[in-house]
Structure formats: structure tokens, C-alpha cells
Amino acid sequence: MPELLENPRAGRVRAVAALSRKDARQESGLFLAEGPQAAREALRFRPDLVRELFVTPSAAERYGIADDARAADVPLLFASEDVIAAMADTVTPQGVVAVCQQFPVSVRTVFGDAATGDNKGRPQMVAVLEQVRDPGNAGTILRAADAAGAAAVVMTGRSVDPYNPKVVRSTTGSLFHVPVAVGAELKDVVDRARSAGFAVLAADVSGDDLPTVRGDGALDGPVAWVFGNEARGLTSDDLELVDRAVRVPIYGHAESMNLATAASVCLYETAFVHRSTTADGGPDLAR
Question: Using one digit for the tens of pLDDT, what is the confidence trace for 240-274?
Fold first, then answer.
């Protein structure tokens, strides 16, 4: 049996637990990826970011994640249930906690490849979150952007920290698949997107219906989607910045639609358009 960390009050354990706080994350440049799914995606897609993996013996056996850590040459430490509980942000942790290096990219990097034409001949899509404060919404939008094939996600300085443990959990590992830019002002993001040839569309109830926008051809090329605050949406000043506001129509009796759900619809509608033709403009017979 390997050496087991058993003291939940040890300095090393407290240092890991502190990463649940934003100030500790900012100071250290580290964050937590809790649970087997997030840790496994980190080990498989970005092992260079994983500094340490803490796992209980039972979780190591149940999920086989110790083998992933060894294959990725990541330091593996076995810990008791009490130690994992002290480290984790969740009430009922699953016995796996990875300490990872933060890896934000710049907005210039996000749109730079498109500006130089390095987009592999395909239209691109970027999700921009402006004042999205709820960690669950932010993580779910990032996950949807990953699933829809978005090139990147931009989280403005007034949005939740993408390395917040609740955001990380909500992405279920997608955080390690998609470049994420943080801290920029919306105006700068829009200016860079437009300079790179992107249409900038805002999801807003004041806009045109999404099917109409699709029919107009507005989704045919590179698109940057802007999603606003859960309660207030986008301000009038924000809407002045974009090319067009777009609404997801509600055909039933629902009063409104959850932000993450509406964002998923917009992202996938764009993905469907982008994949409806091949690079040379002909029909995509593989659909």
C-alpha cells in the first residue's frame, strides 16, 4: 500500500483547499478540477497542466484514474476520505482532486488565427460571455460551445471566474478542450472579432427570430455570439456594439428560456449551418 495522506489539517491539504477561493487562485495561478471526469479529461487532453492528483484508494480502483496519472507522468498522491473532503469544494466529493495550472489565452490569440486566415478553411464560431455571473450557466455554456465545435470562449472581466470550482465542474472536462480568454472588455472583444471578419451577434429578446437570421445568411460565415447576464441580459450600450440582436423564439407557453439553454440553441444552430456545406461550398453528404 502506498503512503497515504491522512491529516486533513496538514499545510499541504490547506493549500489545496484554499484554491476554492478566488484570491488564492489568482495568487498561485492554480485551480481545482474535482471528480473523475474533470481529472480524466485534464490528464488526457492537457496533462502538462496537472501539477498533482490526489485520489482515495477506493476511487483509484473504481475509476482507474491512477493509471491515467502514471501514463501522463503526473505526480499521484493517495489520500484519505477526510483529506479529500477537506480539499474539495463539493459536499460529497468523489474521491478525486486534481490541482491544475490556469491556462487563459488572450483575445488577440482567439481572433488572431482568423485574421491571418489560419482557420483550416472552415467558418469559425466563438462564444462571448458578458456579465454571466452564475457558475452553472457559465460552465454549461462552455460545455455547449465545446460540443458545438466552437473555436474558443471569451469571458469578459465582468463574468464569473472560469476557474471557479463550480464552473469547472459544470464544464465536465470541456474546460480542457476549448481555449478560454478572460478579463477583456466587451468593446475590445467586439472590435477584434469584427476586424477578424466575424459577424457579431447578440442573443437578446429584442432581436430577430433565430430562424429568420439563419435564412438571411447571417450564420454562414464566422460568428461571435455574445451572451449577457442571466437576469438583466445585455445593456443598450452592449447592443449598440454588435451587428445584430437575435432571439430564440418560444413556441409554447414558457415565460422565458434559461440562458444556458438559449446559448446552446444559438451555438448549435450556427454549427448546423457551418456543417451543412463542405469547404468548397457543396453539400455535406456525411451529415
Answer: 999 999 999 999 999 999 999 999 999 999 999 99
Domain 107-274 has CATH 3.40.1280.10: yes
The H-or-E segment that residue 46 falls in is: none
DSSP state of 157: T
What is the pTM assigned to this prediction? 0.91
At 241, phi and psi to the nearest 5?
-75, -30
The bridge status of strand 199-209 relative to strand 223-227 is parallel
List pLDDT tens digits, range 35-52: 999 999 999 999 999 999
Q: What are the cell numbers at 126?
A: 466563438
Regarding the domain delimited by 4-101, which CATH topology (the fold level of the hierarchy) does it fall under?
60s Ribosomal Protein L30; Chain: A; (3.30.1330)
**Can you list the positions of beta strands (E) in the chain?**
4-5, 30-34, 50-55, 76-79, 96-101, 125-129, 152-155, 180-182, 199-209, 223-227, 244-247
C-beta of residue 59 within 8 angstroms of C-beta of residue 65: yes
Domain-by-domain residue ranges, the chain? 4-101, 107-274
